[in-house]
Design goal:
This protein is α/β, with parallel strands linked by helices. The chain has 10 helices and 5 strands, in the order βααααααβαβααβαβ.
């Protein structure tokens, strides 16, 4: 990678670092009595109020209330959050070790379509490894719900490039969505789309 002039890495979160379990999440929402959740939940791109939450257009409280309206009965915040967070699995520790090693050679950024509930859970549990915190793995963290924009909109990539000042031609993007990668490539960024649960460390050997 260094031989190709790559200095910067932009890494996705869900499906690249953390394993995802969409079916488990769907089943847990169904147990709460929520209809049609499958149509709104996609591994890469959410729909409806799930997408609004991911874009930071509604608060977590408003998101939970939207869930309750769909269910049609009182459900606690804790039960909603537990069902929603069951979408998330774990980050294999070898990937956390890899991130730390990559930071020695590259400037590493995280760019994720995510929401406040998932991100808070991830900071507390998924990145909890040895004495490291989530901030130790990345130069900067770019999250859709904070930026009010999502991949694959070209604007989110342009914003990252503008704020960091990095050169697209010196940048490599790893994302599990071919559409996200295609849009990044239009800006001159090199990309790779790993399969689910893939060990993509071979890219750096």
């Amino acid at each position: 990678m260094k031989e190709k002039g790559i200095k910067n890495l932009i890494i996705d979160f869900g499906g690249v670092l953390i394993d995802l379990d969409r079916q488990r999440c769907i089943e847990n929402f169904a147990k709460l009595g929520m209809p049609n959740v499958e149509a709104m939940l996609d591994v890469c791109h959410q729909q409806g109020f799930f997408l609004q939450h991911e874009k930071g257009l509604i608060t977590s409280a408003e998101f939970r209330n939207a869930i309750r309206e769909q269910i049609g009965k009182v459900v606690t915040d804790a039960r909603i959050d537990a069902a929603w967070n069951s979408f998330l699995g774990s980050i294999p520790t070898y990937k956390l070790d890899l991130l730390l090693k990559l930071r020695e050679k590259y400037v590493v950024y995280l760019l994720s379509n995510t929401n406040e509930i998932h991100w808070k859970w991830s900071c507390k549990y998924a990145f909890h490894y040895k004495a490291f915190r989530v901030e130790d793995y990345f130069e900067r963290i770019f999250l859709s719900y904070e930026m009010k924009m999502v991949k694959p909109d070209v604007a989110i990539f342009e914003k990252l490039l503008e704020e960091t000042g990095i050169d697209p031609k010196e940048t490599f993007f790893i994302d599990d969505s071919t559409e996200n990668c295609r849009v990044a490539e239009t800006l001159g960024i090199s990309t790779y789309t790993p399969k689910a649960c893939e060990d993509w460390s071979h890219l750096f050997k």
